[in-house]
Amino acid sequence: MLFNALIRTHHITSRKKVAVLKKAADTYNCYVLLRTGGCPGVMYVESGREEDVSAWVNTVQRLRYKDYQLVTRPGPQADEGYPKSSTISTDPGLREVDSIKEFGSLMKDRGVLGWWRKGMGYAPR
What we know:
It is a single chain. With 125 residues, the protein is an alpha+beta fold. The chain has a single domain, classed as Alpha-Beta Plaits, CATH 3.30.70. Strands 4-1-3-2-5 form a five-stranded mixed sheet, with helices on both faces. The two termini are 24 Å apart.
């Protein structure tokens, strides 16, 4: 079983903060995806242990991002019935993308597109 969480911020531009997030992803054995550069900043975290996801989220909270919103609290990953792409990375670590479109594509590949769209406010709750 996988656990995940979604965070939205004003933006993610500080390389020092990204380095802290990368170290936390490695420490807590989490897969992390960041949308960096412009507005909005989006963070997705996934792990096999809910405690690891919660610990990573706590690291983000301590960094005091502008307009920090824990959109979906750490919890079991919803099964949306979408087939997961066979090419998705399940390796722990941090990855960055530059666009919401690319972020959404990766959420689709992970089988959580509907969950992500609701969390971002793109679909009715």
